[in-house]
């Protein structure tokens, strides 16, 4: 007996309405997004269902009330609902995952244990653990609605043919399970062929697939245009940054790209400067134009760094103003104002140095001179610095 009815076009349409930026986001369908609009009310709520959900399985009273009043299948008896949820708990589903799953698709409360086993088996065969399967399914609830025989299993086979082993498929799905929900023949496979046509070896494509899975889920015409544009900008197809350039261009519309170009031009960058930066570090162009401008303004305002410095080391724009750039700039200004340093570090040293290295170079040697005030500045508002208490205490005592 089939697990569920054939999904309607309306139920599948959510696959195509989700914006690309959320393709691999596990919180897209969280319990917070649950709406009773999904669960059509009927006049006679089931107090027995409510009792099972709240007292047996610790569902929130609000969600349980909505589910108990929903138009569930006739097979959804209190005993069946309790049996389904108990089974899923045995399969490592947490209460939070169950609430997300049932809140999205209440009809699972009337499904059979055999049906669940049938759907879980292909994922177990890949070597995925119960916890991993629970995470994948709770974050990608449509897996329980799509046909296993004509949809899920063929996609898993296609992925295995591409990647070469169950282990590689499992690794990919743990990173981004949307591959079993997307049309692989219209997206993944054509995109792989496009990269092959750019003389990228299959080994590197597989590496890119694991590191940047969303890039392979865009429409193939977008991938082709992005590849052509990256080549036009001078990004080498044999460079490791080529796929990063594709990722940025694939998720940046023409108008948005032009806004970034104009923003940089207004700041004094030439087109050659911009393309040089893009070739060296395309990822920084994934940020909003306003964000890029703010970081450039902070660096130029120091009077120590200019446009040529930023063009030479655009990776500096990938660091946070609040957590890294500004606190370090404050320390350097403090040192300079007290004539403790004559020269600031290069832009790469300012931004890329590890926290410990920056501390050892510009804080520890001047502990007595700059005192607690400046040391506090570098430790506050910069959570990523993670300076140990011992190091700070050592500096205070030195």
Biggest sheet, in brief? none
Shape: globular
Low-pLDDT regions: 1-43, 381-391
Number of strands: 0
Considering DSSP H and I runs of 4 or more, what fraction of the residues is helical? 55-70%
Distance between the amino and carboxyl termini? 76 Å
Order of helices and strands: HHHHHHHHHHHHHHHHHHHHHHH
- Tell me the structural class: mainly alpha
Please, could you describe this protein's structure?
There is one protein chain. This protein has 23 helices and no strands. The protein has helices spanning 9-12, 14-17, 47-56, 61-68, 78-90, 95-104, 113-125, 130-139, 148-163, 166-175, 188-197, 202-211, 220-232, 242-250, 254-266, 271-280, 289-301, 307-312, 321-337, 347-352, 355-362, 367-379, 389-397. With 398 residues, it is an all-alpha fold. Residues 1-43 and 381-391 have low confidence and may be disordered.
Short description:
By secondary structure, the chain is mostly helical. It contains 23 helices and no strands.
